[in-house]
Amino acid sequence: MIRVRGCNMRKVRRLLPGLATAAIIGGLAVTFPAAADSGSVQLDALDPPRRVAVGLERLGFCLASAALHTTPDRNVLIAPTGAGRILAMIGAGSPLPVRQKMATLLGWPEFLGGSMAFGVSLDRARRSAEAAPDLALHLATGVWHDRKHEPLAYFARHAGEGLHAMDPADPATTDRINAWISDATGGMIGEAATDVPADTIILMADVLAFSGGWTTPFEPEATRRAAFATGTPLATEVAMMQSGRQVLPHRRDAHGDWLTLPYGDGRFEAVLVRPAEFELGSFSRMACETVGGLAVPVAATDSHSVTLHLPRMQLNATASLDELLHQARLGEVLDDPLLGSSMLKPATRPGPIRQQVVLTVDEKGSEVAAATIAIGTRAGAEPVELSFDRPFVLMIREQATGLPLLIGMINRPGDAAGAGE
């Protein structure tokens, strides 16, 4: 029998349509769990949507690794799908050579094909969510441009129906954009998500909202206060959820224990990872350096009888994605002087890329909301006992393609607020 300590997630309300993308790294990990030395998957052997998911997974772990490098004991929440959608949007507004650099960053062979495969992945995730009971997924993108400057044709086609004209000097513009983000995330991302500087000529926002109920919910009466090791002499206490015994996919390798916890009918899942090493930074670095993705799906491993202990969590984190990409030595494309120059006339220079992610895990299920915003201005096997009572990794993904909605590094599940920058 496996005993896994962690916490319950509550099933969250259905959210209003929005752009859904989120990732959490902290004690649970998602996507293809496997040892780096076991050999990553051959990218050419993957169908295009799964290859997109592998690239986003790696991007998410690289961003998490950079965040943990400066502050190893904080919570990190990254929404890879949202980050990828904003970067793809900026790439679409750049000349062809810059688009190819962006494709390389995202793990695509080339930009146009990668963009199409990304769209297929998102459509598959939406269809999976629509067919799944007790689950909601909403994805949306909004692009606001200075009404005095019309978007160039290719970029306008890429932006689609989410394209809006604005007056950046009007204070009501900020209120309207923040209200859109709040509505799209069911209020999880508040109405102070961003400010619109007066010299803004384009603003891109990608929003994610996910809510899923556990296939087998935790019993609230079983939740107890329990110790959570932090790597310091002072342990902390958290609300620890406990499930009844259930059969779940589990694997153990040189990097730690991996457990899959399904939502609803199993079309979406949370992958929990308790790394072999206490510190989460080395695990995220390994995942970042495994170019082909973490090769072996947890679902392909043996199933075991599990009693699960998991912390109940309510976390909120922000990150400067452009800074993290530079720290991870992946930000070269962001320094290209032609980046974003094909969005509008006059030429546009993308500014900082900010992301805010909110995560709730309780006895009923999980709720994730993420908003990613970029502002452009004029250029210039055996029974085991497993306890999630120390730092762990959490990932939420769509099962068929592995599309990662959330990657989380959980160092302090009792903290209401976490830092991603």
Walk me through this protein's architecture.
- 25% of the residues lie in helices and 34% in strands.
- The protein is α+β, with helices and mostly antiparallel strands and 421 residues long.
- Strands 1, 2, 3, 4, 8, 9, 10, 11, 12, 13, 17, 18 and 19 form a 13-stranded mixed β-sheet that branches. Strands 6-5-7-16-15-14 form a 6-stranded mixed β-sheet, with helices on both faces.
- Helix 1 packs across helix 4 (111-131) and helix 2 runs antiparallel to helix 3 (96-106).
- The chain is globular.
- The model is unreliable at 1-40 and 295-300 (pLDDT under 50).
SSE pattern: EEEHEHHHEHEHEEEEEEHEEHEEEEE
Count of individual beta strands: 19
Structural class by helix and strand composition:
alpha+beta
Q: Return Rg in Å.
A: 20 Å
Instruction: Please bin the fraction of helical residues.
Output: 25-40%
Query: What percent of residues are in strands?
Result: 25-35%
What is the assembly state of the chains in this entry?
single chain
Q: What's the pLDDT, averaged over the residues?
A: 80
- Biggest pleated sheet: 13 strands, mixed
Terminal-residue CA separation: 39 Å
Secondary structure topology:
Layout: E1 2-7, E2 24-25, E3 27-29, H1 48-70, E4 76-78, H2 80-92, H3 96-106, H4 111-131, E5 135-146, H5 153-159, E6 163-166, H6 171-184, E7 200-213, E8 224-228, E9 236-242, E10 246-253, E11 256-263, E12 268-275, H7 280-289, E13 303-311, E14 313-320, H8 321-327, E15 348-361, E16 365-378, E17 385-387, E18 392-398, E19 404-410
Parallel strand pairs: 1-13, 1-17, 3-18, 5-6
Antiparallel strand pairs: 2-4, 4-19, 5-7, 7-16, 8-9, 9-13, 10-11, 10-13, 11-12, 12-18, 14-15, 15-16, 18-19
Helix pairs in contact: 1-2, 1-4, 1-7, 1-8, 2-3
